[in-house]
Design goal:
With about 250 residues, this protein is of the alpha+beta class. About 55% of the residues lie in helices and about 15% in strands. Strands 1-2-5-3-4 form a 5-stranded mixed beta sheet.
Length: about 250
C-alpha cells in the first residue's frame, strides 16, 4: 500500500471519529436535561392528602363555611384570595388587640377594675358584667346603677364603630322560683340581653351594630355548686367582633 493510500485511510478514520465524540457529548447533555426535567416534575407533583389537609386548615383558620373540600390543585386566583383573607384576618386581630388594650385602660380610669372583666381570644373581645350589678335579683329591668354602668360602656363602644356587638345574657342553673312571672331561665336571660340592647339604642347606638342572645345556664364560668359561683354565672356579656371584609 502506498503512502498516499495510508494517508487517505487515516483521514477517513479521523473524519469518522469526530462525529462519535460529538454524539457522546450530545447524549450526555440530553441525559442531564432529561434528569433536570424529571426532577422538576417530581417537585411539582402534589401529595393530594397533604394538600387537602393543609388547604382545609387554612380555610378553617379563615372561617370559611364551606363543608366540602376540593381535591383539585388550588388555582392562582384562589391562592391570591386566601392570601388576601389571611392578611385581612391578621390586620383585624391587630386592631382588636389595640381596642382591647384601650378598653383595659378605660376600665381602670373609670374605677371598674373589680366590676367588669374582659378577655381577648382569636380576635374576639368579651366583656363580662355580673348580672347583679345591672339587674335586681330575679329581675329583667335595669336598675339605676345598672343604667349608669351601661352608659359607661356606651361612652367607650360608641367610639369603636367597626365593632359588631352581641349582647349575651346568662343565668345559673336554678329555675325561676315559685310564683315567678317568667317561664324559665331562657326567658330571663333573653329579656336581660334585650333590655341592655334597648338602653344602648336609646342612648344613640346604631341598632344594626347590636344583637341580643339569651343562653340561660349554658356556658357556665364555674360549677353551679356555691352561691358565689352561681352569682358569677349570672352575667351579661358584650362580645365585640370585626368581620372579614368589613
Amino acid at each position: 500500500m502506498s503512502d498516499d493510500e495510508d494517508s487517505f485511510e487515516e483521514e477517513e478514520i479521523g473524519e469518522a471519529e469526530t462525529p462519535n465524540e460529538w454524539l457522546t457529548t450530545l447524549a450526555d447533555m440530553s441525559m442531564l436535561l432529561m434528569s433536570f426535567f424529571i426532577m422538576l416534575f417530581s417537585m411539582s407533583s402534589i401529595d393530594v392528602k397533604k394538600f387537602t389537609e393543609s388547604f382545609t386548615s387554612v380555610k378553617t383558620a379563615l372561617g370559611t363555611k364551606e363543608k366540602s373540600t376540593t381535591m383539585a390543585p388550588i388555582s392562582v386566583g384562589d391562592m391570591n384570595v386566601l392570601v388576601e383573607q389571611a392578611k385581612i384576618k391578621q390586620r383585624i386581630i391587630g386592631e382588636q388587640r389595640r381596642v382591647y388594650d384601650q378598653f383595659k385602660s378605660y376600665v381602670s380610669n373609670k374605677g371598674l377594675d373589680g366590676v367588669v372583666a374582659a378577655t381577648l381570644e382569636a380576635g374576639k373581645i368579651t366583656i363580662n358584667f355580673p348580672a347583679g350589678v345591672l339587674f335586681p335579683k330575679d329581675g329583667v329591668d335595669l336598675t339605676d346603677d345598672g343604667k349608669a354602668r351601661i352608659r359607661t360602656m356606651f361612652e367607650f363602644l360608641i367610639k369603636t364603630s367597626g365593632e359588631r356587638i352581641n349582647i349575651r345574657g346568662f343565668t345559673d342553673d336554678a329555675p325561676p322560683g315559685g310564683g315567678s312571672r317568667f317561664r324559665d331561665n331562657w326567658e330571663i336571660s333573653s329579656l336581660r340581653a334585650v333590655a341592655v340592647l334597648r338602653y344602648l339604642v336609646s342612648l344613640g347606638m346604631a341598632p344594626n351594630r347590636l344583637t341580643a342572645t339569651g343562653l340561660a345556664d349554658l356556658e357556665p364560668l364555674y360549677p353551679n355548686d356555691t352561691p358565689d359561683h352561681r352569682a358569677r354565672n349570672q352575667r351579661v356579656e358584650f362580645v365585640l367582633e370585626r368581620w372579614i371584609g368589613e
